[in-house]
Amino acid sequence: MNERVVITGMGIVCPLGHTVEEVWGKMIAGESGTAKTTIFDASTFPTTFSAEVKNYDFTKYVKNPALHKHSNRGSSFAIGATAQACRQAGIDVETQKPADGIARDRLGIYLGAGEGSVDNIAFFGALVEAWNDQTGQMDWARWSREALATMKPMRELEQESNMPAAHIALLTGARGPTRSCLTACAASTQAIGEATMIIHRGDADVMIAGGAHSMIHPLGLTGFNRLTALSTRNESPQTASRPFSISRDGFVLGEGAAILILESLSFAKKRDASILAEIIGYGSSSDAFRVTDMHEEARGAIQAMEAALADANISYREVDYINTHGTSTMENDSIETKAIKAVLREVSKKIPASSVKSMLGHLIGAAGAAELISCVLAIRDNIIPPTINLQEPDPQLDLDYVPNRARKARVDIAMSESFGFGGQNNVVIIKRF
Amino acid sequence: MNTPRVVITGLGAISPLGLTVKEMWEGLSAGRCGISNITAFGTTNFPCQFAGEVPDFKPQQYVPKSYRKAVKLMCRDIQLAIGAAKEAVQSSGLITKGIDENNINIDPTRMAIDLGAGLISCELVELGPAIAKSITDGKFDIRKWGKEGLEAVTPLWLLKYLPNMLACHIGIIHDIQGPSNTITCAEAAAHIAIGEAGRIIQRRWTDVALAGGAEAKVNPIVMLRQCLIKRARTENHTPPESACRPFDADAKGSVFGEGAGIIVLENLKYAQNRGAKIYAELVGVGESNNINPVYEHLEPDGKGLQIAIEKALAEAQITPEDLDLIIPHGLGIPADDLAEARAIQTVLGQAAAKISTWPTKSMLSTTGAASGALDVIAAVCAMEEGKIPAAKNCENKAAGCELNITGKPQQKDIRYALCCSYTYGGQTAALVLKKLDGQTNE
C-alpha cells in the first residue's frame, strides 16, 4: 500500500500541435494557438475566435480506425493522445495479446472528459420545425417526426461524456478501474489526482489518466458568451488570452486531449520504464460558495493548495514553479494571485507562476492534464513556459508570472492548479525523479 | 493505522415510487410500478410511450429560504439531487448549514461529496424564443443565432446544465468544503461515485461524504437517444407497468425514468463517536471495463462486469455463498440481461441458482446516474427489514438466465448484499454491503 506514483508516458493533441515535443517547442517560443473559429460559422457571435485543434486526423494513430469511426472531436483527440502516451510508456495498443507485461485488469483509465457537441443540423433543425412562436410552445409531434428522421444513433450516443474513456478502453484493452469525471475546468487535474490514489491503494498498477474535451460548438460558445466569461477581443485573437494583464477580458475557448501514463514506482522499475517525474501531492476542495463566482478570499483554492503540500509532505518554500489556472478572467487571476500569496507567504513573489492558457487557450475538461504535461517538461528541461501577452501588468497582481518569454531556471518541484466553475479546486504536485 | 471502515448512516431517495426512501421501499415491497405513460411532453410520433416519472415534486421545499432564488438556476437533475440530499442528511442526524445553521454539528472541511450525473440536456422549450429569431427561409441560420438568437438565451443558461452543478448546489446548501467530484459514467456512475467516496474516507481526507447520483431522463432528446440506440422499449402495446421486464423471456427493451439517490457515508469510528444509526457497511468495491466494439451494449460474456464483481467480493473477503441478495443492473434489454446473467453466473458458479436476485428496474425504471444509488438504498432497506420483495415482470426467465429470481416475497436475514452496474461506454462497478448487527468494534 501507499505505492509511490510516477509518470512514464505523455501524449497531447491541442491547439499548439499534435505531439508533446511540437507543443512544448511552441510553448517555449511563446506562440498562441488562437485564431478565427472555423469549426462552425461563429462570425456573428460576440466571440469569433477560439483555440482549435487544427489539421488533426486520428486515423494516423491507429491501425483499426473503423472501431472509432463514430468518435466525436473530444474522443478522437483522446485516441491520438493515448496512442502517443502508450507508445512512450511501452504499453501495447490494438492487440488481443499485449506483450508489455501489464495485466489488463491492473490497467485502468481516469479521464476528465466532457460532452460531445450536439448534432447541430439535426438538433436545431428539429427545433425550427417544432417551435411555435405564436403560442410559445413546442409541437412535440413535429419535433419527434423531424428528430427521428434526422438524428443518427451513434452520433447521439457519442455525445455522452464517458465516450472518450470507451474509446481508450477499446484501444488499450484496459480492464482496471475506469472512471470519467466532469468537474468543469478542474476535471482532468481531479482525474489525475484520483488516478494517483487508485495506484496508491494498490487497485491498479498503471492508469491512463488525463482529459479530453471540446466545447467549441454553437451551444458551448453560446453558454460561455452569455456568461460573459470569454474574451471578445475579436480584432486580435492571438493576444486575447492575457492572464494577469490589466486589460484581460475573459478566457479563450480551446479544445484538445492530454494523457499521462501513471504507474506505481515498483511496477515501473520492474518493467524498466523510463520515469519522467513523480506525483508527490494531490489536494482537492470545494468552495461551497456560489455557482457563479469563486470564493472572494480564495478559501477553497488555498485549502486545496495546502492539502496538496501536506500530501506531498513538503514546505511551500520547496515549490520551484507554479503552473497557474490563470484563465485570463478578471476574477480568476485576482483570486488565484490572492491564494498563491496566502499559501506561499514570504516566497510568493519569488516563485515563478505562469499561465500556459495564454498560449493554449482553455481546454476546459482537458486543461489540467495539458498543463501538467508542461510541468513535467519544465522539470525535464529546466525551462519555465511563459505567460504571453503580458505587456500591461495589472498593478494589483504582483507575482512573477514569467511574462512573455520562457525562462531558464532549475525546476525540481512544480505545482499545477485547476479551479472549476462551481467551486471545485484541485492541485497536483510533481517532482523530478 | 488501520484503514478506516466505511459505513452508511443516511439515506435519501426520490424515485418514480415517491419522494422519500419510505415511499420507495413501500412501493417496492408492494410490487408497485413507478412506470406509466409519459406526461412530461407530448408523445405523438415518439417511439417510446412509457417512463418512470417522479410524482408531484416541488423543488422549493428542499431548498433553504436564503438559497431559494437559486432554484431557477437548477435543471431538474439538480432539483432531484437536492431533494434526496436533504433527506439523506436529515436521516443521518448530521446538522449541516442546510438543515439548521444555528446548530451545525459537523466541520464543513471534513465533508466531501461525490455524485454521479448524466449527460444533461437543456429544456428544449427554453431555446424556443432564441430559435424563433434564428430562421432564414424556414431553416436554422447560425449567423442570426450568433447575434439575435444568442441574446434570447438567459445569461446563466449554461450553469443550469453542467453536470457538476448537482454537487455544487448541494455543497453550497450544506456547506461541504472537502473534495467534490462528479462521475459521468452514465448508468454505472452512482456505484463508482459511492466507491470513490468510500476511498476518500478510507484515506482520511474526510469523515463524512454524500454520495450517489441523480438524473432526469424524461426529456425528449435524452429518451430519443435511448430509442435510437435500441435500448428503450418501443413496442408500446402493453400496460406500462408490465413494460420493463428484466431477465424475462418477453423483455423488449428498457424503460427510462428519473430519480435521485444519495447516501451518507461515514468513517465508522466517527459515526460511533457521534452515536449515529449505522445502516450497513461498504465492504467491497470493484470496478472494471467492458471491451466491446458494439459499445452501447455489454460484451456477450459479461467479462467486464464479472471482473468488477470478483474484485468486490475479494475486497469484502467473502465467497459467493456468503451473499444473501443480489440487485443486478437488470435493464430489460435481452442481450444485456443475458450478458449480465452470464457474468454473475461465472463468478457465483453453483451459488447463482440459490442466491436471491432481485431486479428493481421493472418498478423504478432505468434512472441513469441515479439507478445504482437507488439500488444501494433498496438493498439497505431490505437488510433493515429482513425482507426481499417479489421480483416483478420476470415470469419466464430468458434462456441462459439461471439466476434465482422469484415472484414471491421472502423473509430473509441479509448479511451481505451485492449491487451491480454497467453502462453503455463500458464502465462496470459492483458494491458489496454488509449488515453490521451491532458488531462494530474495529
Strands of chain A, total number: 16
* Helical residues, percent of chain A: 25-40%
Taking pLDDT < 50 over at least 5 consecutive residues as the criterion, the unreliable ranges of chain A are none
Tally of alpha and pi helices of chain A: 13
Top-tier CATH class of the largest domain in chain A:
Alpha Beta
CATH architectural grouping of chain B: 3-Layer(aba) Sandwich
**In terms of quaternary structure, what is this?**
heterodimer
Number of domains of chain A: 3
Distance between the termini of chain B: 11 Å
What does this structure look like?
- The complex is a heterodimer of chains A (433) and B (442).
- Chain A is an alpha/beta fold and 433 residues long.
- Chain A has 3 domains: 5-117 and 159-270, Peroxisomal Thiolase, Chain A, domain 1 (3-Layer(aba) Sandwich), CATH 3.40.47.10; 120-154, no CATH class; 282-431, Thiolase/Chalcone synthase (Peroxisomal Thiolase, Chain A, domain 1).
- Chain A has helices at residues 20-28, 73-89, 120-130, 140-150, 153-157, 163-172, 187-201, 218-226, 265-270, 299-312, 330-344, 357-360, 367-381, and strands spanning 5-13, 35-36, 49-50, 107-113, 131-132, 137-138, 178-181, 206-214, 255-264, 277-286, 321-323, 353-354, 383-384, 407-408, 413-420, 424-431.
- In chain A, helix 3 packs antiparallel against helix 4 (140-150).
- The longest helix of chain A has 17 residues, at 73-89.
- Chain A is globular.
- The two termini of chain A are 20 Å apart.
- Chain B has 442 residues and is of the alpha/beta class.
- Helices cover 30% and strands 19% of the residues of chain B.
- Chain B has 12 helices and 16 strands.
- Chain B has helices at residues 21-29, 76-92, 124-132, 142-151, 165-174, 189-202, 220-228, 268-273, 303-316, 334-348, 361-364, 371-385, and strands at 6-14, 35-37, 50-52, 111-117, 135-136, 139-140, 180-183, 208-216, 258-267, 280-289, 325-327, 356-357, 387-388, 410-411, 416-422, 427-434.
- In chain B, strands 7-4-8-9-1-10-16-15-11-12 form a 10-stranded mixed β-sheet, sandwiched between helices. Chain B has a two-stranded antiparallel sheet with strand order 2-3.
- In chain B, helix 1 (21-29) crosses helix 12 (371-385).
- Chain B is globular, with a radius of gyration of 21 Å.
- In chain B, 65% of the residues are buried.
- Chains A and B meet through strand 4, helix 3, strand 6, helix 4 and helix 5 of A and helix 3, strand 6, helix 4, helix 5 and strand 7 of B.
